[in-house]
Amino acid sequence: MLTVAFVMLAEVLIFVPSIARFREDYLLLRLERAQIASLASSAAEDMIDDELEAELLSNAGVLNVVLRRDEMRQLILSSPVPQPIYQSYDLRDVTAWQLMRDALACLLDTEERVIRVLGQPVRDGGQLIEVTMQSQPLRAAMIDYGLRILVLSLVISIITAGLLFFAVRRLLVQPIRGVVGAMQAYAQAPEDARRIIVPSATLVELREAEVALKSMETQLTGALKQKERLAQLGGAVAKISHDLRNILTTAQLFADRMELSDDPAVQRAAPKIVRSVSRAVNLCETTLAFGKAEEPAPALDRVQLSLLVNDVVDSERLAAGDHDISFSEDVPAGLTLRADPEQLFRVISNLIRNARQAIVASRAPGEICIGAAEDDNEWIIRIRDTGPGLPPKAREFLFQPFQGGIRKGGTGLGLAISAELIRGHGGRLELEHSDETGTAFTIRLPKGANELEESL
């Protein structure tokens, strides 16, 4: 239907010039026939009677013929004119705009008129030929021509529309239906990689759409498989956490009794052991699954950062054993920030543990530095090491679980969990740099909530 409409619109746009050209040809033909009739009359001289003169005028389709030759104007053929001349048209020097204007005027005029037409005789048959004729035969011929154009346009548009319909159906509709069918089949079982679309379209644009759809489905299938693995991991961690909590509860009871010992070394170590066991129990009770449930919202409290960092460093120093690793703390003694102490401990512990493991794996001496500072807007904690730096894959998928593993055999969960915990505080965990000289991470925690509370 659109094709038919567009073809008809194009015909309308060219109809006026076409009908104007037809009118001009019609009038020129009458002038040519009138000239032939006048030549016949001139050749026969006085032998043409009234009946033959009327027949010549009828065949020419005119009422009178005037020929100007040798600076003389001569009435060659004549017949009674039923009414005065309504309009004169000179075809010798006429513009396209005048032809179109006169053609439209002729089509719209339903009255019978007598018009005069002037033109240049053919084959130098004189200086001017002039005829008078009735306008309605011209109008009838123009209407008949317009109807024939309309019918021809309809036939052309219908044939064009049919060819276009089958071409579009073959080149576009059927491939698009194939894409829709592939999408519907994939939607029924998106985890089935066999249902991912295989690009097959020949049209460039449609093939690009199929390639983009294949990429999206591939990523979605991978994400669904990862989600399934995370859910399974969540169930496993929940079970392990249940049993581990019971074991750690017993250890916590023994650690509480250690505080009653008179041994100075035991008294110094007991609080650290108690806090470590308490954190482990708390970790089990919150049931970190990362594939089963999201991390709980942080329970914000005032945290003296130096004490928390000291606990982490003492634990990691023991874990380092005989390996040549030095730990340095550059945390102001009075720096207090607002955070969840357990979650912040886990983040710092993850970062320092990763640094320690990287240095141990390099079999070279190393140093781990923990620094902290603050400004008007945020608290800043930096953890730097002199290890071998992160591998390229770890940098590419740094905070993605199961993809950004730093060491061989690692799952990549540590950094993903740490980033999630810091985001829960409204902050950011950033990688400053990582190369052969070492790695540096920055934790940024906003002060906005704390300042609001103090202002109240």
UniProtKB/TrEMBL annotation:
InterPro entries: HATPase_C_sf, HATPase_dom, His_kinase_dom, HisK_dim/P_dom, HisK_dim/P_sf, Sig_transdc_His_kin-like_C. Keywords: ATP-binding, Coiled coil, Kinase, Membrane, Nucleotide-binding, Phosphoprotein, Transferase, Transmembrane, Transmembrane helix, Two-component regulatory system. It comes from the Bacteria. GO terms for molecular function: ATP binding; phosphorelay sensor kinase activity. It holds the Pfam family HisKA. Residues 239-449 form the Histidine kinase domain. Residues 206-233 form a coiled coil. Its EC number is 2.7.13.3. Gene3D superfamilies: 1.10.287.130, Histidine kinase-like ATPase, C-terminal domain (3.30.565.10). The chain crosses the membrane at residues 145-168. It catalyses: ATP + protein L-histidine = ADP + protein N-phospho-L-histidine. This is histidine kinase. It comes from Actibacterium atlanticum.
